[in-house]
Design goal:
By secondary structure, the chain is an alpha/beta fold. The chain has 3 domains: 55 residues; 69 residues, no CATH class; 85 residues, Rossmann fold (3-Layer(aba) Sandwich). The chain has 10 helices and 6 strands; from the N terminus they run H-H-H-H-H-E-E-H-E-H-E-H-H-E-H-E. It has a 4-stranded parallel sheet, covered by helices on one side. A two-stranded antiparallel sheet has the order 1-2. It is elongated.
Length: 254
């Protein structure tokens, strides 16, 4: 009985196949319909089973394109499940772990899966098919090494670090890691108020807030840079680290 629900293409193909198989078993079914309908049916069945050269090429081309698209989608779905892509999709930025995972926990991470074709590692340039659980462009060996370094820490108590461009993205992550490692951090940014608010929102802000200094500085303005350098020379005994993160955005005037 017709339920009135729309049939999918698969359902329609299934029904057509069932009818053709019935006709193979009992060709008298063709006599039970009008001549015009029978001729139309046989002509359509013939064109489907014996296409001309143009239709065959067209079908091969469509099939090849569909297989390629399915392959791309499979790989994209696989890469989308890596940790680094999940972080990129989050609307709220997640800072580095306050407590890094143990080596046992890192080794226990499963691989995401295998790709149909070999990919080229961004770091070592070797081909690989096994996808790392966190990195989408690194082979498993480089992925394990970089993931261990990503969560690595050291005791930097008493050290002084200067970080330019420490408000967002990799600069902010570097600043958080330095502060949580015990360093005294000097941050420069064009947006000091926003930068201060971001650092203050961290759950462990009270643990290292006394070791954080934020300076508003536009590196494109030379007098401001000179004044800042003079301030450092007059007030600091030394700098143990200088991370020139913001310099990558400075361009020579046209």
């Amino acid at each position: 009985m017709d339920t009135g629900e729309p049939k999918t293409l698969k359902d329609r193909f299934q029904a057509a196949s069932d009818l053709l198989e019935e006709i193979v078993l009992d060709r008298s079914l063709l006599v039970r319909i009008g001549e015009a309908d029978r001729n139309r049916f046989l002509q359509a069945a013939g064109r489907v089973s014996r296409p001309d050269a143009i239709d065959r090429r067209r079908l091969l081309k469509v099939g090849k394109r569909q297989r390629r698209e399915e392959k791309i989608k499979r790989e994209e779905d696989l890469l989308a499940s890596t940790g680094i892509r999940k972080l990129r999709r989050q609307p709220v930025f997640t800072s580095p772990n306050v407590f890094p995972p143990s080596p046992e926990a890192m080794l226990a991470q499963d691989r995401v899966g295998e790709t149909d074709e070999a990919r080229n590692c961004y770091t070592c340039k070797r081909d690989y098919t096994t996808i790392h659980h966190f990195y989408d462009r690194l082979c498993p060996e480089c992925g394990d090494f970089n993931f261990a370094k990503r969560t690595e820490t050291a005791d930097l108590t008493g050290r002084v670090a200067l970080l330019t461009g420490g408000r967002v993205k990799i600069g902010y992550q570097a600043g958080i890691k330095l502060l949580r490692a015990g360093a005294h951090l000097i941050v420069t940014t064009r947006f000091p108020r926003d930068s201060a608010a971001r650092y203050a929102s961290e759950p462990d802000f009270a643990d290292w807030s006394n070791r954080l200094e934020i300076f508003g500085l536009d590196l494109r303005h030379t007098p401001s840079v000179e004044s800042f350098c003079t301030e450092l020379l007059d007030t600091r005994e030394r700098l143990d680290f200088i991370i020139n993160n913001a310099c990558q955005t400075v361009r020579r005037p046209a």
